[in-house]
Amino acid sequence: MNRRTVFITGGASGIGLGIAEAMMKQGHHVIIADINEQAAKEAVIKLAHLEGSASAVAVDVCDAQQVAALPEVLGKHTVDVLINNAGIQHVSRIEDFPADKWQQLINIMLVGPALLTQAFLPAMREQNYGRIINVGSIHSLVASPYKSAYVAAKHGLLGFSKTIALETGDCDITINTLCPAYVKTPLVEQQVAAQAKENNLTEEEVITKIMLEPMPKKQFVSVEELADTASFLMSPSARNITGQTMVLDGGWTAR
After folding, report:
1. Considering 129, 146, 150, 182, which one is annotated as catalytic?
2. Contacts of 32 (CB under 8 A, 6+ apart)
3. pLDDT digit string (tens) for 95-110?
4. pLDDT value at residue 170
5. pLDDT value at position 176?
6. What is the pLDDT of residues 2-30, one digit of tens each?
7. What would the 3-class secondary structure string for 105-173 be?
8. Which residue stretches of the chain have pLDDT < 70?
9. Is 5-183+220-249 a CATH 3.20.20.80 domain?
């Protein structure tokens, strides 16, 4: 595969950092974008021993002006692959869900990907190559209680991807959404604690009775699985896979 420039939001930790590591091992240049500039720089240092290269950029994906300025900020680096990964979670019944927090989740996980696509799509069109990979969730397809904002945002990504797929059918640009069941990351570990409190369960009970219970495979999805799927979507063999929902759910939605 050609060496690509891969822009990953929320790239300083969790799934984003794991995908960044995998992409660098393949020799790509990775731009680690995060709202926490120091964390992004530390991630670049952490991955410096790998074959590819990396740089860091601070960006608030909810800030339209910051996002629109990114192509100029990045200078010589034209983004070939955009991975919309930034995300947060808040667990609460809707009656108690703070309105500003609900809006924040939508802004980060739905409005942000739209703004970033808007920013990088012109250059992708110009070079007739681009891959937009949204990190969705099993909650793009199903729901769980107390996660109304997260579920709404992740469902919205699927509609957004299908629309952009139709708008980019005239060139070698694709957009798809990875939808994994639970991936063991710091964000999920926080969810375990929050779910335990909300449901009056132990953390082990949350894992076995809530998170993994619907999965016939009964195991967390690995970051490596997501990275390998993203790599395939970047390849010429995936040029006709667009507007699709790539489900890595251990059989969850087969029920």
Report:
1. 150
2. 8, 11, 12, 16, 17, 20, 40, 43, 44, 54, 55, 56, 57
3. 999 999 999 999 999 9
4. 97
5. 98
6. 899 999 999 999 999 999 999 999 999 99
7. HHHHHHHHHHHHHHHHHHHHHHHCCEEEEEECCHHHCCCCCCCHHHHHHHHHHHHHHHHHHHHCCCCCE
8. 1
9. no
150 is catalytic: yes
- Distant-in-sequence, close-in-space partners of 65: CB < 8 Å, separation ≥ 6: none
Nearest in space to 150 (alpha carbons), one of 209, 214, 91: 91
| Integer Cα distance of 25 and 226 in angstroms | 15
pLDDT given for residue 209 in this prediction: 87
Q: Is 37 within 8 Å of 15 (Cβ atoms)?
A: no
Supply φ then ψ for residue 30, to 5 degrees.
-110, 130
Query: CA gyration radius for the chain?
Result: 18
Domain boundaries, the chain: 5-183+220-249
User: Which two tokens mark 43?
Assistant: 């991630």
Task: Please give the pLDDT value at position 210.
Answer: 86
Which of 14, 15, 13 minimizes the C-alpha distance to 230?
15
The helix or strand, by DSSP H or E, that contains position 199, with its residue range, turns out to be helix 186-199
- Does this model's pTM top 0.90? My answer is yes
